[in-house]
Amino acid sequence: MTDHILIERPEAAPGVQVIRFNRADKKNAITRAMYEAMTAALKAGDADEGVRATVFLGSEGCFSAGNDLTDFMAVAMGGAMAREAVDFLYALATHSKPLVSGVDGLAIGIGTTIQLHCDLTYASDRTQFRTPFVDLALVPEAASSLLAPRVMGHQRAFALLADGDVFSASAAKEAGLVYAVVEPGAVERETLTAAGRLAAKPPKALAIARNLVRGDRSDVLARIDEELGHFSAQLKSPEARAAFEAFMTRR
């Protein structure tokens, strides 16, 4: 569908499927085609017994700068989030295999909130997490308004999602958003090692353990829907239009 998303099966990590952002020249900003490719990969992984863990990786110095705003605004001006992005959020929230993420550098917007759905996140010590939703007159997405307070507590979640504060890798680890902080050159190795270790475990027992730890996902899906309702309403608001115009003028 797009060469901006690479789907890999590393020989060194049997049973692991890698979803890799491959748009480094645009800081791995995510287009609708990229969302569609990632959704297809997640669904294929669900259906394939040979896939026992799924990994998200970016490029050197950048995991993802979030939505490609030019692509995003082409749909947003009509007052709705792109269907491809919505499908990805549902596929992410319901993916049946362990999710492991390796983050190096920028992780903005969905680049941050995707970590809330991951079972293990390894981040380099130069990583920065930020969600500038409110600065664009929008609201949190990916059920982050539900998951972040659970993981981080109210005040840290508010700082991340409402205030748009930047979290360093160490602050993210302290808050529970990240499992381990490593050197930039070790991110991919540690991430694939962890995913390979999970892929080698008895799959049924691991699936049960994961589901017990994660709990019922119906509230997560309901929160995604609730956020999307507010998100769509905000897209039509004068303050969002003003924020978008100001952003595009600065570019």
Description:
Helix content is 48%, strand content 16%. The chain is α/β, with parallel strands linked by helices. Strands 1-2-3-5-7-10 form a six-stranded mixed β-sheet, sandwiched between helices. A four-stranded mixed β-sheet has the order 4-6-8-9. Helix 1 links the parallel strand 2 (16-21) and strand 3. Helix 5 (144-152) crosses helix 10 (218-235). The two termini are 28 Å apart. 45% of the residues are buried.
Q: What structural category do the secondary elements indicate?
A: alpha/beta
Shape: globular
Relative helix content = 40-55%
| Chain oligomer state | single chain
What is the number of helices? 11
Q: What is the N-to-C order of secondary-structure elements (H for helix, E for strand)? A: EEHEEHHEEHEEHHEHEHHHH
Percent strand:
15-25%
Query: Mind telling me the C-alpha Rg?
Result: 17 Å
Keyword list:
single chain; 251 residues; alpha/beta; 6-stranded mixed beta sheet; 4-stranded mixed beta sheet; 10 strands; 48% helix; 16% strand; globular
Topology summary:
Blueprint: E1 5-8, E2 16-21, H1 32-47, E3 53-57, E4 62-64, H2 69-76, H3 83-94, E5 99-103, E6 106-108, H4 110-113, E7 120-124, E8 128-130, H5 144-152, H6 154-161, E9 167-168, H7 169-175, E10 180-182, H8 187-199, H9 203-214, H10 218-235, H11 238-250
Helix pairs in contact: 1-3, 3-10, 5-6, 5-10
Summarize the structure.
This protein is α/β, with parallel strands linked by helices. It is built from eleven helices and ten strands.
